[in-house]
What does this fold into?
Amino acid sequence: MAAVVVSADGGVAPLDSGSVSPRLPSPSPEQPHQNNALLGLPIVAIDNILNFLTYDEISLLRLVCKRMDMICQRMLNQGFLKVERYHSLCQKQVKAQLPRRESERRNHSLARHADILAAVETRLSLLNMTFMKYVDSNLCCFIPGKVIDEIYRVLRYVNSTRAPQRAHEVLQELRDISSMAMEYFDEKIVPILKKRLPGADLSGRLIGSAPVAGPSTSLTTMSLLAKNTPSRSEMTKVQQQVKVNGASMVALRREMQEVRVKQLEQQKQLQDQEQKLLEQSQVIGEQNARLAELEHKLRELMDSAAAASTSAANGTEDESNTAIKRKCSDSPRHSKRLRSKK
It folds into this structure.
């Protein structure tokens, strides 16, 4: 049975085997978003729609297509900068309410708020050192969107709570996911991105491949390279040395980063110990004041008891003296009476 095609005026015509297929043509690669209503919108509208999502969901949307990947990368980079500004604003507000003396700050109601914000600042600095070098070079974006969501959660918790929990309890999730993100980025993604850095493969090009002659300096460059062309063994040795040096540099940078993290953690521990020492010194001072008051009260009681005992002794002596005097005064009268009776 021959295939048929419905014409424009409603008639039916047979379809030859050599004619064009009645199926609609696939869209050209230059116009891939004609059938997608969301991606056909302006970027401002897409940004407003994506603002209702979390940064973790935005990071997952990068897998949709190249256009969505570009939009999500820009939003992730802006999200990290926004959370940095929001943190600095929160820290300024808390510091403005704290007293100037360090001893008074530890007993203030906003002391835990300041500790949490200081710990978030160290996390932001570590993330900045890890990611923003490659972000500024347009090699990648700020990949862990979940870290941005967690930082926002901590900052909102600090702003909305009058008596927050301790810093290690509030920041446990943030430390875990940020550490995992930085470790994965350093181990899996940084070696790929270093190959794309400008000037990273310059030594390999100069050593391993022949130079491309330019329009004006082709003869001079070729002649210079022909004069000083190294052997293959020398080139392999140099390439191996370059690889070894690169691996050692990566290891050194990783060790430096670990040392910085340990240093920041030690500083935090020292601050906690100083806080505990101040609290203990304050408790000891209060106990010394109580002991001094108790000693003063004991002295007063002992003095009052001694005074009472001396007054009682003096009273008994006076009574005995008066009794003796009365007896002495009565004795001559009694003798006179006896004489008169006789």
Observations:
- Residues 232-341 form the longest helix (110 residues).
